[in-house]
Amino acid sequence: MDEKTRNRVIVRTSLIGIVTNVLLAGGKAAVGLLANSIAVVLDAVNNLSDALSSVVTILGAKLAGKRPDKKHPLGYGRIEYLSAMIVSALVLYAGVTSLIESVKKIITPEEADYSTLSLVLIGVAVVVKIVLGRYVSGQGKKADSASLVASGKDALFDAVLSLSVLACAVVRMTAKVSLEPYVGVVISGFIIKAGIEMMLETVNDILGKRTDPELAQQIKKLISEEEGVRGAYDLLINNYGPGRNYASVHVEVPDTVTAADIDRLTRRIQARVYRETGIVLAAVGVYSYNTGDNDAARARDTVREIVLRHEGVLQVHGFYMDEETKDMRFDAVLDFKADGAALIETIRGEVLEAFPGWSLIIAPDVDISD
Predict the structure, then answer these.
(1) Cα-trace Rg, the chain
(2) With the CA atoms of 90, 91, 93 and 96 taken in that order, what torsion angle do they form, in degrees rounded to the nearest 10?
(3) What domains, with CATH codes, occur in the chain?
(4) Which stretches in the chain have pLDDT values below 70?
(5) Among 25, 51, 294, 316, which is least packed, fewest CB within 10 Å?
(6) Has this prediction a pTM greater than 0.90?
């Protein structure tokens, strides 16, 4: 889906959400005020906050769609994460406000009085919220919009809450027992929980999440399928908004290839990865491996055995040695829990003990996507 189509989907879906939630909020507010039910009134407030969230989603999509400029050469896509943060803050605020009002009603109770029409309207609201939630979630996944997906889930959750309000109304009419303030507290708790979860998810997007393992494996597989490539390592994907991913990677190639060979290879890799995943490989680094040298192969196996026997080392790659200059280099992928500096120094000492007189470069990598 191109960016213009994506923005149209987000705006259209959000507008549908705004209209639907405003109508639901108006209907529920009327029912709640006439029936003197705090639970229904709070449900209406929740719908109104959903409508406001959709407004913020539209503004975020519009701003995120601005063309890159000199000040922001990678575009404004991350604004969508800020809009999602605002949406979660609005949901959280609605939950806290609802909780306060519910507690007040428990301290100073008021009798609710429902009519059959009230029950019908609340029941219709439940059905509408289920349909709206499924639609918004589907469009959000289609457009890769975290805000829409969150709004869709919130709508489905609202349907459950409205159903609980309906149950309270039925109990009030049949058993003459008033549960509205207590259900209001429960509803408030769920709204607060949803707001916190949405905020944490958005914070993770802003901070940068670990690359999806399936996507990482797909990209590495695509690269490794190229002739002459023995492996792909150190994949790092940076996200600049939904659908805007820039990556870097190292490829391992024979030490016999020329600069022209590498140039052709990296361009093929970049084109294929973008075509099949939509990710821009902004940088492709190169590791060389020894060819036609049994001593180098034996040395690689020895080094690998020394390094991998240490707990906290996940992988060794990029090994190369030069017999003439007695230079050796490789990368060690370390677990996040490992004491990197101390572990590397220990490994350095053991490798140099096995290969006295050699110079050694060990590049420590962290477990980003491997």
Answers:
(1) 29
(2) 180
(3) 3-207 (1.20.1510.10), 211-288 (3.30.70.1350), 290-370 (3.30.70.1350)
(4) 1-2, 38-39, 110-114, 368-370
(5) 294
(6) no
